[in-house]
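USER:
Try writing one entry.

ASSISTANT:
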Amino acid sequence: MIRIFIFFLISLILVNCSLNENSKIWGKKKKNIVNKNIEIVFDKKKISYKELNPNINLNLSKVNIKNNIFDKKNNFGMQNYPGELKKIKNFKFSKFNNENESDLAPLFLKNGVVFFDNKGSVIRFDDKQKIIWKKNYYSKFEKKNNPKLSFALSDKTLVVVDNLSNLFSINLETGDLIWKNKSDYPFNSEIKTFNDKFFAIDIKNVLRCYFIKDGSECWNIETEKTLTITSSKNSLLIGDNIVYFINNLGDLTAVEISSGDLLWQLPTQSRDIINVTYNFKNSRLVSDSKSIFFSNNKNEFYSIDLKNGSINWINNISSSLTPILVDNLIITVSDNGYLFVVDKEKGNIIKIKDIYKIYKDKKRKKKIKPIGFSISQDKIYISGNDGKLIILELKTGNVLNVEKIARNIMSKPFLYNNHLFMIKNGAVIQYK
């Protein structure tokens, strides 16, 4: 009886010690497990920005102007556009059922545009708005589900993935189907091509590599899954036989293209984000061949070393818009309408300008948000979810003009071949 009592007493003492965070038995072990550097992004307070050096002028007159619409590193920089903003063409298509589609992108050609309509028909227009061909490779059931398509081009082959798990390729000249396959899950990313392969990310955060010739899968690499699905597209880029991609948890991953081997991975968020990922958005990845730059809507702007995935710097900028690299500067726009100019090497903020001060406070509180922006040789074009295009002088950041483009939401502005393009529901609009 005494032995039983002693055994019970010792067990009780050990249990109490293990539950006490100040216990000498377990305290040291617990301290080693906890990483003090982990930050819970959803505990962060919202940052209120103020203008910084708003009168500083940027001298970018000697910067090289790019005219590519294809760039494997998403580094488009400044584009040549005279800036008359005179509407000259409408490439019309059947309207989408959801008018709030903003994350759509046409495929620009030297002599026209490729886009799709609400039934998933792929349409090639020439530069005079004439339809060269219009093809649909969906069943009646799929058409009712309003496919959303993403395009990439490899020579004369148009590669397509969609949000219904389809992937297929089309002859660019004729519109004829080359092959069509089905994936395990819907896709939710842009597409990138490299030699004989193309890459896309599905809604389960799996990067998949396919052969362009027949759509067969070369390899895939899984990253952590989420419990919810985000509407924003995941981003990827290509550099030196490596594909870099970010999933909707904020995990940045580098994979060797030939083998599919994981090279490095950098988680940027606490795992608490898993249950609320529908509210989390990353910007598109952009690289200058040394670093990868991206931001999110939780007050974090990153510069990451391309070779080893180490963090160069982090700054407090909340933006889900694609940053633009101009010489040694980064230009971005925050989700609440502030223009930022950042030093690319050190991450120091050089200038902050309040773009949305043109709105009255009451209207601004109705969550007017930027959709995207592009930069020409002398102007910045910023589209908003109120259907307006704000035009800034690049040198000063001052608002030059505000144009009403659509009734409500629209795409980011695209600059290509000395023209500006905007997508609103039912049309791709071309300006000179």
